[in-house]
Design a protein that fits this description.
13 strands; 18 helices; Alpha-Beta Plaits; N-utilizing Substance Protein B Homolog, Chain A; Rossmann fold; alpha/beta; 47% helix; 4-stranded antiparallel β-sheet
Length: 431
């Protein structure tokens, strides 16, 4: 199947079925050999999700009448065509003709697609000027998201949204238990892959250009993993010590689990818990590749008393379920799939898991709360409320060069230091 038809299949799963872009790509491209077709399909799908609100605004001006809901595949082809013409280094005639051909036997659709795309070619300046003043076109985010960003970060909201529309850099976490960062940088240099060390993370290496993991030296031997710098901070903040028992709550897909084990191989135990069995299997796969071991448990994190059975831990990492509004640049489908109504549900879930995990923390132990969100409701407000509920909890201030200190915890906004948006708060259970 040709790339544009593949892209329609992927985006139908996202727009119609609510499947994540990552999962949809994995499913649809499972039998597509590595190569240009796969890369081109991925680029189109990411691009349409990233700029959906802008492209859709353009399309509304180009259509003489609305498309029927059942013609979602044709709408997707039109969005794909506009994305190619506006953003990709595809010759205009190829972008139009190949997108038209992807409509198959639907002759009416071929005529429509050809007409709309050629209309845009002729009058693109007028089309774009007509929507230029709208926030949807300027920032390409849903209106509710724009409002929340402005409410939470009035001075930084625009830069956050512009950063969300940039492709994220590829960052690696070097397995320091196997090789030093300088040694791995040398291996990259020998392989002709340009990269540099990230100052705020002792194991982080950022590539100048993304490559497939099979091009990374020692990837399948466990020398390195793909993980953003902001996510890598968790292992150092948790400050695990030899002989400690560690609980990793909501652990999937296991990047932080592995980083903890790489940083401190002399733990007494590490229990990684996640409610999703399929995602927990991903944790196991990652650990096997890295030649690491942990106890994996599929369980509801909000019901610790049911499975902890009296166990206590000196360190707990709670990578809380969240809106993920800090990682939009890596997952642009969040702009399409997330709903404003999700936020209150997520904060209720977070507080329940926090209270449950606290029961399993040993006196004197430390809980690290993390999200990939930039909303105060999920972050500093959540932890402030937690501290007010638990007199035996005290915040440990995070002193660092990255991010910004908040009344409680520390926040990284998307794009700061080329990192994803993340929040961390560190809490000790008093004796």
């Amino acid at each position: 199947m040709k790339p544009r038809k593949l892209a329609v299949q992927v985006l139908l799963r996202v727009f119609r079925d609510g499947q994540s872009l990552t999962a949809a790509l994995e499913t649809v491209l499972a039998d597509v050999a590595e190569g240009q077709d796969k890369a081109f399909t991925q680029a189109m799908c990411y691009g349409v999700c990233r700029y959906y609100h802008l492209l859709d605004s353009m399309l509304e001006r180009l259509l003489s009448k609305p498309l029927r809901k059942k013609d979602l595949d044709i709408r997707i082809l039109l969005l794909l065509g506009l994305y190619q013409l506006r953003y990709m280094r595809v010759k205009d005639h190829a972008a139009v003709s190949e997108t038209v051909a992807a409509a198959g036997k639907k002759s009416w659709a071929k005529s429509l697609i050809n007409g709309v795309l050629r209309h845009y070619q002729r009058e693109h300046d007028g089309v774009e000027q007509g929507i230029a003043s709208t926030e949807l076109a300027k920032f390409s985010h849903p209106q509710w998201m724009i409002r929340l960003f402005r409410e939470n970060w009035p001075e930084q909201a625009e830069s956050i949204m512009l950063a969300n529309n940039e492709a994220a850099p590829m960052v690696l976490r070097v397995n320091l238990s196997r090789i030093c960062r300088e040694g791995y940088l040398s291996l990259l240099q020998q392989g002709g892959i340009a990269a540099h060390a990230v100052s705020c993370c002792p194991a982080a290496v950022q590539l100048e250009q993304a490559v497939s993991v099979d091009k990374l030296p020692g990837f399948f031997d466990g020398l390195v993993s793909v993980q953003d710098s902001a996510a890598q901070l968790a292992a150092d903040l948790l400050d695990v010590q030899p002989g400690q028992a560690v609980l990793d709550v909501c652990a999937a897909p296991g990047g932080k689990t592995a980083a903890i084990l790489e940083r401190q191989p002399s733990l007494r135990s590490l229990l990684a818990v996640d409610v999703d069995a399929a995602r927990l299997e991903k944790v196991g796969e990652n650990l096997r590749r890295l030649q690491l071991q942990a106890e994996l448990l599929c369980a509801d994190a909000s019901c610790v008393q049911d499975w902890a059975k009296g166990r206590r831990f000196e360190r707990i990492l709670l990578d809380a379920p969240c809106s993920a509004l800090g990682v939009i640049r890596r997952h642009p489908d969040i702009k399409l799939l997330r709903r404003e109504s999700d936020i209150n549900e997520l904060t209720t879930l977070q507080s329940g898991i926090l209270d449950a995990a606290w029961q399993a923390l040993q006196p004197g132990g430390i809980l690290l709360y993390a999200t990939c969100s930039i909303l105060k409701q999920e972050n500093e407000d959540q932890i402030a409320a937690f501290l007010s509920r638990h007199p035996d909890a005290e915040e440990i201030k995070i002193i660092a060069e990255w991010g910004q200190a908040r009344p409680v915890g520390r926040q990284i906004l998307g794009g700061d230091g080329q990192m994803d948006g993340f929040y961390y708060a560190k809490v000790r259970k008093t004796l």
